[in-house]
Amino acid sequence: MDKKKENLAAFYGIIVSVFWGLTFLSVKVALTELQPMTLAIVRFLIALVFLPIIAFATHTSLALKKKDIPMVALSSFVGITLYFFFENNGIMRLSATESSIIIGAIPILTLIIEMILHHSRPTALVAIGVLFSFIGIVLMVIKSEAAKSSPVGYFYMVGAAFSWVAYSFLTRSIPSSYSRLSITFWQIFFGMVFCIPFALSEGQHFTKLSTTVVLNVLFLGICGSALGYWLYVIMIDRLGETRSSVFINLIPVVSAVGSYFVLGERLAALQLFGGSLTVAGVFLATTPRSRKA
C-alpha cells in the first residue's frame, strides 16, 4: 500500500478518536434538553442528510438488495437502536468519562466472545489485558458516586457494550460486496426507524432548544455519525480492523480530558487508576504483535 495513504489513514484514525471521544460530552449536554431516544432520532436524521452527499462525492453506491434487508434491519435494531437506547440512558446517569471507559472496553468483550466461540486460548498478553480491564472497571464502579446514586447507569452501559458486540457479529453476515458506507447508511436508516416507538413513549416537549444544545446535536450528527463513520470506513479499509482498534482505544482518553476541561468532571484517584488500567488492558489485548503490523 502507498505509504502516504497509510499515514493519511492513521491521521483519520486520530480524527475519529477525537470525534467519537467528544460525542460522550455532546450527548451529556444534549440530554439536558432532549430525551435519550429523541436525541438519537435527531442525530440520525442529520447523519442521513450528509451520508448520501459523501456517497455522491466518493462515487459510492448506496443500493441494497431486497434479500439482504432482513439481516441489515436486524443488525440495525441491535447495533443502532438498542445500542443508543442503552448508551444515551447510561450517559444520562453516569459521567461522560465513566461511560466512555466502559464502552472503550468493547474490544475486550468481543475478544472474549470470539475465544469462546472458536474455543481458542488467549496469549499471555491478551490474558493480562483482559484481567487489567476487568479490574479497572471494578475499581471505577467501587469509587463511583454515580453508581451509588444510580447503579442502573452501569447496567445501561454494559447493555450498550453487549449490543455493539452482537451488532459486530451480525454485520459480518452481511455480504461483503456492499461498500461499508452503504451498510452504514442503511443501518442508520433502519436504526432510526426502530427508534421512533421508543421516542414516542418519552413524551418529548419540543420547546425552543438552546444554542449550546443545537450545536452539540449538529456535532453528533455531522462529526459523530456521518464524518466519523466515513473516516472510520476509510481507516478500516486501509489499515484493517486490528490495527484500527489501536486508535479506537484513544476514545476514553479523549473523553476523560475533554470532560475534565469542558464539563468539569472529576474522577477519584482510584477511578483514574482504574480507568488507566482499563485502557492499558484494551491496548495490551488488541494491539497487533506481528513485525508487519
Can you put this structure into words, describing what you see?
- Helix content is 79%, strand content 0%.
- By secondary structure, the protein is mainly α.
- Helix 2 packs across helix 3 (69-93) and helix 4 runs antiparallel to helix 11 (251-263).
- The radius of gyration is 19 Å and the shape is globular.
Terminal-residue CA separation: 13 Å
Low-confidence stretches: none
Q: Total number of helical segments? A: 12
Structural class: mainly alpha
Q: What amount of the residues lies in strands?
A: under 5%
Number of strands: 0
Radius of gyration: 19 Å
Instruction: Let me know the average pLDDT.
Output: 84
Shape: globular
Order of helix and strand elements from N to C terminus: HHHHHHHHHHHH
Provide a quick synopsis of the model.
This protein has twelve helices and no strands.
Write the layout of secondary structure elements.
Elements: H1 3-30, H2 36-57, H3 69-93, H4 96-103, H5 106-118, H6 124-143, H7 145-149, H8 152-171, H9 180-200, H10 211-248, H11 251-263, H12 269-286
Keywords:
single chain; 12 helices; 79% helix; 293 residues; mainly alpha
